[in-house]
Design brief:
The protein is mainly α. Helix content is about 90%, strand content about 0%. It contains four helices and no strands. It has helices spanning about 1-90, 90-95, 100-115, 120. The N and C termini lie far apart (about 100 Å).
Amino acid sequence: KKFEIKTASAKKEQLEATIGKSSGDAQASSVKIEELAASIASGEADLKAATTVRGKEAQDFATSESELVEVIDTLGRAITVIEREMAKNPAAFAQVDTSSLHGLLDSLGAVVDAAALSSADKQ
């Protein structure tokens, strides 16, 4: 009978140690869960902010793109008109001071380059 009591006491101590370890593990897990929940909340806030910024940038891009497409269309029509008029009366355009025309073309090229359009769009 003494042996059974001694064995039961040892088993009790072993179980109490297991309970203590499990309680510590549970507390550590609770802390880890809180840290992960805070990290998730922070990540969600960052995602929301990035989504807002991306939406604004996309809207700005769409506005700029539509303006540039309109300018390119206008320039294309102007080139067509100039070419048609040059075909009708080439001598009239020969009298035009071309130094300012080169400056205009350089300026337009700079605008198109600044808009970061592809070479296909520049044409």
